[in-house]
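Milestone M4 deliverable, item 7.
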Amino acid sequence: MQEQQAGRAIEKTFVHGSTVDQTRFYMGSLMTTLASTTETGNGFALLEDRSTPGHEPPSHIHINQDELLYILDGEIEAYCQDQVVKVASGQCIFLPRNFAHAWYVDSPELRMLILTQPGGVDEYFRAMSAPATSMTLPSSQITYLMDNPEHAFQCRDRTRISKFGSG
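Output delivered:
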């Protein structure tokens, strides 16, 4: 049975967890899709990110998406709208669309949920990543600092999700 929610058709109920078949190796992190853009009719995307210091994205802007980061374990230092804030386990930060933002892992390991509304960011992560072969953080993955920026720009342009830099 098809339900209507906020003007979009939701095809079915689904259940996902942090399993290898839902997870990708992404720039030295593990990125698990818990609710995809497709599954939510572009309503939102929900991901779990496991990372360590040095594997953060560069400053970027989500053109049409609000983003909420909820810290499950660890701590980040986040930058947005001329603010610098620490966000620890059990806390969240809201990052509004069209504002440059970045964060840095400020603990030995980080586990957080990433919620974007509307969806789409999961498609960027899929384009920038490879299927995970385990649920162990990769030890020798390319990071944004090591990667050719053209790859990120091409994925960005294909998915039309964000732009890099401060404005």
